């Protein structure tokens, strides 16, 4: 693990605290999730649910995860044997890779990739094969199908697919998913899907969210991951889950028992309550976040950034070159001093930093007044060019 330093999220959040800047770096909301969920957690905490829960997770949560996936995506998973609760999606990703990969196996992922992917792949002694997402003429990020095809080979063990995608806000289209599915089947590869932003696809996205596991031939080779942090604004709870066919899920459980064993006993029943909330919660959450996206996208555009409008997630990426920036890392390190705002450079999420050199990421999962203040500060940049 020698090549891995402090994560960019920790570095930039510390910078925000130190400088008193508005933190649009690390993606965490600044208000609480549904009151029903918080009340259920308090009740569980006071009601004695404070010891080790069962290894795969409390039954109420596994049942709720199964019901939620059936309700929104038509997917059927048996709560007994096909679902495991994890310490956030982060542990779910790590345990899935450790469960499926032997040293030397290749893991295909799309860059920019979420930072824990590279570390988890390294922990398994596996090799990452990134395929680059590049901004296309229509302002959307896309990959070259030939590049994806060429990245598959005899050592490809799995494809790690994150859609809706952090940091780009890209939602993979049905055609793109169909190609991934076709290549997985052609090469006998598994898929591990990180769908933590499954409820954050905006109404103007070109396509709705489609779990890869719903495509023909994919359920039996896919481990599908999600977590409560984003959907219910409780990123500090670290309650996630993996769903898939029993043999794969049992391999994940075997790994998980030696990573954390179990986690979050009193929070698990509370997340079960949240997963069962009415459709109005989920659409309200999305609409609210979409309004925040619109506020930040308009503000960044006005401030002079080259904005790549996202179709989903908490994040928007922007090109710093119209503001005279050359390197996103330098730009982000000086931004708090220049105007009191923190963002993260996306080059750290690429194997090929040149591909993301000019891009930085802002999070819009913040209260509107906080976004407005950030935008006011960012507008001063153009004046100082
Ligand atoms: N995957 C992606 C794409 C993320 O953005 C995040 C951050 N929420 C995670 C995984 C980690 O999720 P968790 O906090 O549930 O571990
Ligand atoms: N998922 C969040 C982000 O992408 C934060 C993750 C972290 O701090 N490890 O900003």
Could you tell me the radius of gyration in angstroms? 20 Å
State the end-to-end CA separation. 40 Å
What ligand species are in this complex? Answer: 4'-deoxy-4'-aminopyridoxal-5'-phosphate, glutamine
Care to count the β-strands?
A: 15
CATH level-1 class of the largest domain? Alpha Beta
- Characterize the biggest β-sheet: 7 strands, mixed
Low-confidence stretches: none
Number of domains: 2
Strand content: 15-25%
The arrangement of helices and strands along the chain is HEHHEHEHEEEHEHEEHEHHHEEHEEEH
Count of DSSP H/I helices = 13
Report the structural category: alpha/beta
- Oligomer type: single chain
The CATH architecture of the largest domain? 3-Layer(aba) Sandwich
> Going across the major beta sheet, what is the strand order?
2-10-9-8-7-3-4
User: Any idea what the shape is?
Assistant: globular
What helical percentage do the residues reach?
A: 40-55%
CATH topology of the largest domain: Aspartate Aminotransferase, domain 2
Look at the structure and name the CATH superfamily of the largest domain: Type I PLP-dependent aspartate aminotransferase-like (Major domain)
